[in-house]
Amino acid sequence: MPLLVQHPAYFSKSRLKSDLVAHNVALPPAKSKKEVYVELYLKHIDQRSDFSSDEEDLVQDVTVENPVVAEEPDPRDLTDDDLKAKLLEHGVKAGPILASTRAVYEKKLRKLLQSDRHDRVNGAEKGVLYSDSEEEEESEQDEDAESGSEGKSQTVEQLEEQENSQNGDFTYPQCFLLSSRLHVPASRNREPDSKGNALKSSARSLSQNSWIPVGISRSSSVDRCSGVGSVVPPGSQSVSSQAFSITQMVEEMESQRALSTSSNTEGEVNGSNVQEHWPQSDRLDMPVVDEYYTPKASPYNQTMKEPLKDTFKDLLPDNDITPTRIYATCRRPIKGAAGRPVQYAYPETPASPITLERREVERHLVPIHIQIVVFLIVACLLYLIYDYAEDNSLGPFVSL
Amino acid sequence: MSSTSQKHRDFVAEPMGEKSVMALAGIGEVLGKRLEDKGFDKAYVVLGQFLVLKKDEELFRDWLKDTCGANSKQQGDCCGCLKEWCDAFL
């Protein structure tokens, strides 16, 4: 209930006195008029909270009540219509508020008011929480993206290195040369750097992987490599880097080769017109290797392409050899298919984890041939025993 | 008809007429007595309450709980029973 507002003028003198004393206000002379007390009261208690407390009391009461009124109107105090209106505010279409239904509706209103209060409190908290979480999520996503891209680039490089090492057995430096040429434009495509930068970057990575080309050049047989490069799909930058260090090896190798075309590759590798040749090679090679070109070129396919170079040469010796010796074959060649004999040892295929598991299990299991032999032996033994049982003589055993 | 009791099926099978409040599914002797004390002595009175609450399941459950102290299962049974009866006959 709101306090009745009373102007200090209506207070009794004694009350004014006591109030002034309570607020440490110097009392006027004892026999001063009430008006003096009133003035003092108004003056001092006006400055303090009390007078304003009157107002504040009013205000407070009002404010206290207002929130109460606004947030917590006791459903019991509401009229039927008010209760219905309040429920409607919360989206509840109430039926007739009768004696029997009133209690239920009051309960419902209380529940709604409580949930409102909770929402308001939680909303403020959640706002802060969400903003933090968003930032965290964003930062996490950024970190993940960065780490992912870094990881990818690393794995790609690792894969390339592995493949290159694998290629060492039967691949030829020129392949790397050509692949490098292919990669250079690819790297350019990826990086917005200028041609020079791309070459520089590849050269830098070249120095890192220089050991690979050395190994390859020594191990590979010169005669096989015809200087024909397979179209290496834009993928590995490290391979491109290797090409430049291989140039020296290639020079040596090509000096031994009878093929004259190899010299062209060198010139082109050293040149900076790789990107120009790239589209040309595409155009030239497409009719030749159209059937073999698959758009999805994985770095692994490089290894598969090298063995084919010879066969291609055999089949299409008269075709104009493209400057880049790029033959687009991304598909893994079928062993011994289409009349082409299996010339080279194919590296082990990548085995899925399931295959690996199966192989391991099979290693521990008895091979099937041995199982069959054992079965036959056991069968023979049983037959002999049966014979012995039938004849009940040592005849069959005597023969043994 | 996976989880309805025999009482439920019996009630929903025909117009309730003058059936006692204990014929409702979920309302046994104890709850029925309490309801009768409050004045709900026939099933149709409880039906009336259900309809006045605009067939709102939640409100009716609350009312049942307040009036006779039914637990959650009993509330659900009674409410479902009346609902189905209304669907069939109202």
From TrEMBL, chain B:
Q: Which SMART domains match?
A: BAF
Subcellular location, principal: nucleus
Q: Which domain of life is it from?
A: Eukaryota
Tell me any Pfam family this protein matches: SAM_BAF
GO biological process terms held by the UniProt record: chromosome organization
* Location of the protein in the cell: Chromosome; Cytoplasm; Nucleus envelope
Family annotation (SUPFAM superfamilies) = Barrier-to-autointegration factor, BAF
Q: Name one GO molecular function term.
A: DNA binding
Ordered alphabetically, the record's keywords are: Chromosome, Cytoplasm, DNA-binding, Nucleus
Q: Which GO terms describe its cellular component?
A: condensed chromosome; cytoplasm; nuclear envelope
InterPro entries from the entry?
BAF, BAF_prot, BAF_sf
Q: Which family does it belong to?
A: Belongs to the BAF family.
Name the UniProt record assigns to this protein: Barrier-to-autointegration factor
